[in-house]
Request: fold
Amino acid sequence: MSEPEVITRIEGRVGRITLNRPQALHALTTQMCRDITAALLAWRDDPAVELVLLDHSGERGFCAGGDIRMLAESGAADGKAAREFFFVEYRLNDLLFRYPKPTVAIMDGVTMGGGVGLSRPCRFRVATERTTFAMPETGIGLFPDVGGGWYLSRMPDHIGLWLALTGARLKAADCELLGLATDYVDSARVAELKAGIVADPGATETLLTELEGDAGRPPLAAHQDEIGRLFAQDSVEAVLAALENAGTDWAAEQLKVMGTKSPQTMKVAFRQLQLGAKAATFAENMAMEYRIGARVVQRHDFIEGVRAVIVEKDNAPKWSPATLEGVTDDMLDAIFAPLPVDEEWSPLP
Reply:
């Protein structure tokens, strides 16, 4: 009998959720999201559980995202399975965002896309020297979902927009700088950390202080002012123009990277962050992101992006529209428009 892809159990007074799909870097399936949600709901009002700990089996990463192949296959058909995945995943993201008990995520390794959706709402977010954070969706024609509209838009100096448009990868020191990680612990001490949390969940904060390592200097700090200046624009086109006029090697590199991304996705992400910044609640943001997801998953760029980057790996997607100018306001309005009332997303009670 095969092992479950999510292992849930209570150890001491700690509810433990271990992602267990190592061959896929623990990429989330709909059933995995359901299993995590069921455990969180069961423990929410259980006085025997004081704290919830999320981690992963193996050493390759916390969670690389969602089951992209399934989403693309569904999107190329009727899109029903893809919409179901987003609906269930976003409910899980929202449940974690407002969970009444302390939650700890061990971001030891790759933490991207759906992995960010699991870790970012947690009270304690532990990075190690193996942590690699990214929201790389613009490279496959998707968009930085799982709460990206809320979290990225609230980062300082337009760094969230930079992350959304470029898909830049960050290591632990930068994750601490931006509040994506609350703590840094060397991977060699993670087992000690977990054992200590299970032994005394009430002392988690003290334990993290005792085990705190040095992540080093954050490389991003050297470019924070530049990002704040160049990405403080009112359109993607204006961002590109600012980068072109900057005359620095760093700006030229960002321009080159953005030239490989889906024009549609960059414009979607730009509007997503504008609207997410104005959202009154996290759930309001997630309802907006569900509308986007329900539609872009069936559009050309996502299916083509998955083909080019994940299936055939030629890394030569043919985006349509091929230019930012081709992505019209009408096209964006259609992607962001409300769904029929019976198809809208809603949070769990």
